[in-house]
Amino acid sequence: MMARKPKVATGGDLGFEAQLFAAADKLRGNMEPSDYKHVALGLIFLKHISEGFEAKHAQLLAEYPEGAEDEDEYRADNIFWVPKGARWSHLQASAKQPGIGKVIDDAMLEIEKVNPGLKGVLPKDYARPGLNAVMLGELIDLISGIGFKDAGNASRDLLGRVYEYFLGQFAGSEGKRGGEFYTPRSVVRTMVEMLEPYKGRVYDPCCGSGGMFVQSEKFVESHGGRIGDIAIYGQESNHTTWRLAMMNLAVRGIDADIRWNSEGSFHKDELPDLRADYVLANPPFNISDWGGDRIRKDARWQFGTPPAGNANFAWLQHILHHLAPTGTAGVVLANGSMSSTQNGEGDIRRAMVDGDVIDCMIAMPGQLFYSTQIPVCVWFLAKDKSNGVARDKKLRDRRKEILFIDARKLGHMVDRTRREFSDADIAKIAGTYHAWREGEGYADVPGFACAARHDVIAGHGYVLTPGRYVGAVDVEEDAVPFAERFAALQATLEEQFAESARLTDVIRQRLAGVIVPDDAATDLTRSADV
């Protein structure tokens, strides 16, 4: 019997999402993906909230007709109120009209007017001259088919998954710019499965389009927990990206406190008193213009003042500052953060090791990200490594020890430029971490995982690159006796020597037959004299 092939975790598990995106992408014509994503995602969001409204509306008509047009009946169930002129059925009926762009803009404005939580979130530039009305109509028809045969929650969940898939595909289309708002699902899932944000406060100080939060809620759902058991907080400095996050969370029905300001988390911390149980973050890599010279003295810099030219250790310390006494965090950073000694970074890293706030380091493979082909690392931080509880498991005392995982050989290529982890890859990484911190069944695996004491790390100059600690993969002893292997290698080497001598003779014979003109010979002689 053949072994079952492990399930592969892709950007979505719908089956039709790739065809749907291809059809939608074809409609955009020459429009830039960075502009088109707001057009498509805005309409998907509009369809989503209209579906939720229509389902509740039908229920009220059947059970309590006089409440069908009562806004409070919808808000009581955390459903957005959608005015008549903004309902999807109205948009669909108007899809072939030349003025469909204005109809959509008016719908967005009406929805924002009656739902304060969406104020300033929805795109409202569908009537601009550069946007083709025929394309908009065809896009409405395409989106109308999503979840058409499903009822209620099933249809809305489908729309949420489509929204997430489209986000990922637009990130791929935009390349480096796409990395500013989207963290690949493989990376987020790995972090979530390791930290297990099952209950408590979840925070992301640079939340992008909110993928960390969506995966956290999925984790709770998939493990039989209650969504209301986690509270979500975030901050984002890019207003356009903040709007994407707000729609991404709303389309999932996730209640969250996501703040925006243009100054960012370092200079205007919107949640200064928050102490989170979990932090999941993918900060901008090696950002040099973070304004560090303006905040040289700050309560957050417990382990040393971060250099003004690189924000890596500012992010780590900002996140540690926001952790609850038993909180844990996962932070994606550039590989240089594990070994750099420039501008005091080595001293900060040493202080963090000695301060026992680093729990685990993972070296990730290259080509996981849309924004960069280089490999990255993930830092896992813990405010208190002496104890703790993860779900129903008591954690062991892990002080003076760090787990190193080298995951660079994991994953598979899903296209020419991008790699993803399978479910088995994620389970291998997360399972190793859980076994180590719970003290149940962990053992070092050469080439993959090693638990190193602080004295060993000090001997490596406080460099935290996993490859230094995990060593090489064990190689099984060859069944062929050494004497036979040596004789075979020697014979091969003699053959290569003989072939080299033959080729040398051929080259000499060819050169001897070359006739050099007199003037060329003179030039060669002059060159030699010089």
TrEMBL record:
Can you supply a Gene Ontology BP term from the record?
methylation
The keyword Methyltransferase is assigned to this record: yes
Which EC number(s) are documented for this chain? 2.1.1.72
Family label:
Belongs to the N(4)/N(6)-methyltransferase family.
Q: Source species, please?
A: Sphingomonas sanxanigenens DSM 19645 = NX02
Q: Name one Pfam family in it.
A: N6_Mtase
Question: What are the residue boundaries of the DNA methylase adenine-specific domain, all occurrences included?
Answer: 155-478
Alphabetically ordered keywords of this record = Methyltransferase, Restriction system, S-adenosyl-L-methionine, Transferase
PROSITE patterns per the record?
Answer: N6_MTASE
Supply one GO molecular-function term.
DNA binding
Record-annotated N6 adenine-specific DNA methyltransferase N-terminal domain positions: 17-129
Q: What is this protein called?
A: site-specific DNA-methyltransferase (adenine-specific)
Which reaction is this enzyme known to catalyze?
A: a 2'-deoxyadenosine in DNA + S-adenosyl-L-methionine = an N(6)-methyl-2'-deoxyadenosine in DNA + S-adenosyl-L-homocysteine + H(+)
